TrEMBL record, chains C, D:
PROSITE patterns: ABC_TRANSPORTER_1, ABC_TRANSPORTER_2. This is Multiple sugar transport system ATP-binding protein. The keyword Ribonucleoprotein does not apply. Pfam families: ABC_tran, OB_MalK. It comes from Nocardioides psychrotolerans. GO terms for biological process: carbohydrate transport.
Amino acid sequence: TLGRPPAVLVVPATIAAALLVLPLVALVLDTPWSTFLEQLGSEPVLEALRLTAVASGATVVACIVLGTPLAWLLARVDFRGRAILRAAVAVPLVLPPVVAGVALVTALGRNGLVGPLLRDGGITLPYTTGAVVIAHTFVSMPFYVLSVEGAMRSSGERFDVVAASLGATRWTTFRRVTLPLAMPGILAGSVLAWARSLGEFGATITFAGNYPGTTQTMPSLIYTTLQGDPALARTLSMILLLASVVILAALR
Amino acid sequence: TLGRPPAVLVVPATIAAALLVLPLVALVLDTPWSTFLEQLGSEPVLEALRLTAVASGATVVACIVLGTPLAWLLARVDFRGRAILRAAVAVPLVLPPVVAGVALVTALGRNGLVGPLLRDGGITLPYTTGAVVIAHTFVSMPFYVLSVEGAMRSSGERFDVVAASLGATRWTTFRRVTLPLAMPGILAGSVLAWARSLGEFGATITFAGNYPGTTQTMPSLIYTTLQGDPALARTLSMILLLASVVILAALR
Amino acid sequence: MATVTFKKAQRWFPGADKPTVPGIDLEIRDGELMVLVGPSGCGKSTTLRMLAGLEEVNEGKIFIGDKDVTDLPPKDRDIAMVFQNYALYPHMSVADNMGFALKMAKVSPEERKRRVAEAAEILGLTEFLDRKPKALSGGQRQRVAMGRAIVRSPQVFCMDEPLSNLDAKMRVHTRTDIAKLQADLGVTTVYVTHDQVEAMTMGDRVAVMKDGDLQQVDTPLNLYDKPVNLFVAGFIGSPQMNLIKATANNGQAQIGHYQVPVDPTAAKRMEGNITVGVRPESWRIVSAEDGGLPVKVTVVEELGSDGFVYGTSDVEGTPNHIIVRVAGRDTVHKGETIYVTTDPQNVHVFDTDTGARLSE
Amino acid sequence: MATVTFKKAQRWFPGADKPTVPGIDLEIRDGELMVLVGPSGCGKSTTLRMLAGLEEVNEGKIFIGDKDVTDLPPKDRDIAMVFQNYALYPHMSVADNMGFALKMAKVSPEERKRRVAEAAEILGLTEFLDRKPKALSGGQRQRVAMGRAIVRSPQVFCMDEPLSNLDAKMRVHTRTDIAKLQADLGVTTVYVTHDQVEAMTMGDRVAVMKDGDLQQVDTPLNLYDKPVNLFVAGFIGSPQMNLIKATANNGQAQIGHYQVPVDPTAAKRMEGNITVGVRPESWRIVSAEDGGLPVKVTVVEELGSDGFVYGTSDVEGTPNHIIVRVAGRDTVHKGETIYVTTDPQNVHVFDTDTGARLSE
């Protein structure tokens, strides 16, 4: 009831909306729906689907197991260097994925900082599925940690303080109070990490390569397929678009 | 003063922190600092730097000009389909970049939905710098719009209501009240959009390709360089890492 | 300056199963300060927002003076709003905040400056004109919000809980300031609050609302002395009026063995289940032999200026909580039983089922 | 149950340029309800948190009974906290919230159930035991928070503004409930609030704090009747005590032409610039000839039970704001000038420079 929106705002807003929505609509319209399921049956597609599922699943598990304690530490413990660590954790959020890949090669590659150490221990990472999981975890974990840390901060220390005043140890407080209260953040963070992992392309192709069966995830396969078989590329893209819509719905 | 943090939390937190920090440290240590400036002087590097600057600058301008009105519409005007439009705007946030590229090809490519229309109008997009800007805008604008919409919502409608009750038209209210109050969100959104644009790889290489001088931005160049000249790749990565750190600092 | 008239004005939010305000009829006089008061969700803010043009009016009409404003946008209604959170523009100085309406009206800069300075003088804000709102205290911000409204010289002020962001002491202070200012300016004002003390102290008249309906529109003292129903009786006054269930029998009201003195009008009208209301300050402590209502004391609150005795009166198995205001100090102690009574003119009798007042 | 003793307990936040609490000395008796009251930032909450073990004690000691708890973690102090926002666990039922401390203490489920049921009975929460906190009203949540503390049977309750999230009516109701419960249980309680009405009505004794220092520790009525300094005089009581600048001359206190009646002790001690304090209810209205203090009436507030007259008394160029409580109705009107005086025993005389009390 404040009056009609002025055209000088409505027109550019419409252009912006069109730019964002049109490509999605085009993808939905041009997907070869009649041969959709049939196309999914081929060996390289199945392999990429399986690998994507495994890598993103392992990434989410790694985020929960390692990222939850890190989020707790950042939210609840006052230690020297906390501000710096919090900033460092956020860096991969804005770091270009290709740069993340280069950094991973530099650290864990054959001639990297700790790569020779790993090799001496019998572990070779680059161009393996393990490399895919590490690349995904590196780029996805910051989303998870910031989401969980935010949830822990917003629920506030007062719940912990009450638990302490009622006789609970710090570990009991974490299990019985902090963790259940941060559950919405943990779920949201897991979905975000999963989404980031599902779409990972730059860091993976740089650090782990693009080998069918071991490191070729869905985005890499789509990239590879687009020149030769654009219809298949659209089918595969459609699957990830659907996953994205599901993810967005889950986040609400 | 709630007691010492338990080891069962500190140990996994340390592993997580190491995983996130180590690759960054490795990159900093292994960058060939002695030849840093010299390496930047080569023609392909300068071209990629120039192209990245132009594309990300144009992207930010496009976000501000088109995204601000869209954010206002989503935050302030109650129209049918607002919830759907808001969800659609968020899709590119979680959409894998490669899929974004495929969607752009499907819509604007030579044989795409509106590609022929554009060609009849004398515009060819794929594999041009224009395509790079459109790809960057598509993936960056959601960050901008959500940031500005959030700022406009959190400042709240009450400021607009007061302006209306004091005799201001809707357009005057937008200029004199809404826009200045949303300025922190506009700045943060611009920085986010710029960061996303700077690191864009998947959508660009899929939609616009990887041609030196027209579509080869920094991430594409780094990807191309890593196999042949890893030292140069690290130097270029280092530049983007520094940009990321600057971006993070700006966001605080 | 003008009257304000609501004619069966209705607001029904889309999708709600009943109207928030089913249809309000209210006439506010020129220059009057009318307070809308009620518990949260009673529709008082919605009513104010309809007047300001911020909520659609689904049925009925609203007039400011003789002008039908029902369908006018807010900017054309010649009103000024003051909000709970003030909504001062943080990017503008105090002077620019106060002059905003004049800028919108394309008043010349000199004239604007003059009128802002004038209002700042009245409100004691002259020395703060160049500051940003965040450099002010809560009370000062409140005054800037008032100033922004005053400078417009509107026909009607619309104030939505303008004191609720202030602390208790500041609130007491500011409510007298606003009441004085409004009286001096003589601008018709509609003031919304949930606080009955503000309503009592500020309003020329007070409109008590509940569930979207007006319960009583009257002067503060009439609301206090002659509440028309149980809701108004319980809502106005703090500590609240003692409301005790009783039975009427041949013009006698009985609470257990205690016979309540009632006025003749009530004696004639009352029947069956009634509720008897007595304000805490209307009780007198009497001796056991004088046949008062027995009250077992549970807590004694000494405020310095007054004391309040809280107790229970066990009648027919249902304990009634009784509050008695006492003047002296240290006269009543926890655990004692005291006997209280009152006089017919201080007893409010209500029908328990309809809630309607039966006393004169 | 135990005493609580602060011995020069200090809290200095890292990086602050002065201590928040420089060193507090306070003895709280076994079973006593001690209220810490003061404006925000006075260090009252910090003092409570030191007792609870949530803030480090930088110097000095704190004892609960004979036990030095200065360096014990909160879980080993045998205290229970009740917070302003309750901090009920939203993922647990009311019963699990209340039984949390017993679970931590590894009390058997049967015993736990019994003790929770017992506390729920006392607090009237029996029917809500299976609900989640979000399904409760504000007042019920407050009682669950109380119950969680009670079930622990601690030596000391620490309550940090437990009523400030309730609305005005609920607050009046709940404060008598808490005071009664505390008296029945007899558990030593430290209660922090910024609201002087809560302090007056609930405390066995009240400690008034300002800038980290105790100003006065006394019973509520002593604080009201004999405030030791200007701060306490202005802080306790609402509306606040009239504090008027005056000059002392040979045992006479003058405000303009008005000679203030003062008690002999004050008459002997006072000199130079003094401040005279009179509570609003201690004024008497007299006729002009009787030589009272002239007050020009600006606002009259009729609350129904009482009235307050706000006015200014123009003396030596500086207007003093004067508040007078009047009993009758409609006796004083805006714009009139009334004359007020009082009696020596109702006059508080303070040294204007040091703030110290000079009256008896």
